[in-house]
Design a protein that fits this description.
The complex is a heterodimer of chains A (243) and B (55). By secondary structure, chain A is mainly alpha-helical. Chain A contains 9 helices and no strands. Chain B has a domain of 27 residues.
């Protein structure tokens, strides 16, 4: 029954027609939320008494950092669906998510490095959080280049899915690195179980920027997967109607 | 909560010497996102053009 449900709603054709309907709404909504939150955070919140104005990088760094890990988890879930139920769309999603994950990880690493200069006095430190995030970035790049090195898509999808699942072990390591090792990074200010340790005037624009960035990333995944479906399904008759 | 945090626009750009870091990250993020949007849309456009020519 689950298999029937997944196959019915996860055909590339159904997916394309469904996402086409919501794409513009998600894009415009996310852009508005993201830019309003950024302006709020960058210009309308008070200066942090420890870090000064450099703390404002939080509104760009944290959403990217959160999404870099979330995208990897979603890639691992899609890989699992592909391996267990052989859903083609899941395989297309895995390779569509990888470049967007690499982009968000790149943003997280570079914005963190720039933030490190005024805060820590260095742009790079081999601490657990930064190193594990760098490993995540290398993993994304490795998966992308590995997939493109295969002429046979099916073989590439299988290998990529297995590697994505195995590599998911790095995500909890990144998350817990600040607790397990002594690092320059502070512990998480926002958790699901405790009250946030960040002031509400700084927290609300941060939540807004995270929601906005999440939506923008979803839109990037949608257009990336659209391109992937075009390439992989170009010989199917329904593609002619669509294009 | 919605009070402008600076006395002037120049101060908002300078941010007590931290503006260079903050605004360079803003530019980096916007350019990165925009380049991906433009890149994928161009790829899709190119595919559609090629596909329509061959069919």
């Amino acid at each position: 029954m689950i298999k029937k449900f997944i196959h019915q709603f996860a055909s590339p054709k159904t997916y394309l027609f469904q996402v086409e309907r919501v794409y513009k709404f998600i894009l415009y909504f996310s852009l508005v939320v993201y830019f309003v939150s950024l302006i709020w955070g960058l210009l309308f919140t008070q200066e942090d008494f420890v870090q000064g104005n450099s703390f404002r990088i939080i509104y760009l760094h944290v959403p990217a950092s959160f999404l870099s890990q979330s995208l990897y988890v979603s890639m691992a879930v899609a890989s699992f669906v592909y391996i267990v139920w052989r859903v083609k769309l899941a395989a297309y999603l895995v390779i569509s998510i990888a470049p967007i994950g690499a982009l968000t990880t790149f943003i997280a690493l570079t914005s963190g490095s720039i933030w490190g200069i005024p805060t820590w006095g260095t742009w790079w430190q081999w601490d657990a959080r930064i190193t594990s995030t760098l490993i995540l970035f290398i993993m994304y790049l490795g998966l992308i280049s590995l997939h493109s090195s295969f002429a046979n898509y099916e073989k590439a999808d299988k290998l990529l899915s297995w590697l994505a699942i195995v590599g998911a072990i790095n995500v909890p390591i990144i998350k817990k690195s600040v607790d397990w090792w002594s690092t320059l990074h502070q512990s998480a200010s926002i958790t699901l179980t405790d009250k946030p340790s960040i002031d509400p005037s700084m927290l609300y624009p941060l939540i807004g920027s995270m929601i906005g960035f999440f939506g923008i990333t979803i839109c990037l995944v949608i257009i990336s997967s659209k391109y992937q479906i075009f390439i992989r399904e170009k010989n199917k008759s329904w593609i002619k109607e669509y294009v | 909560m919605f009070e402008f945090a600076f006395n002037s626009l120049g101060e908002a750009i300078y941010m007590n010497g931290h503006g260079i870091y903050v605004w360079s990250v803003v530019v980096l993020v916007l350019i990165s996102l925009l380049s991906f949007f433009i890149g994928y849309n161009l790829k899709i456009k190119k595919f559609k053009k090629k596909f329509n020519e061959s069919n």
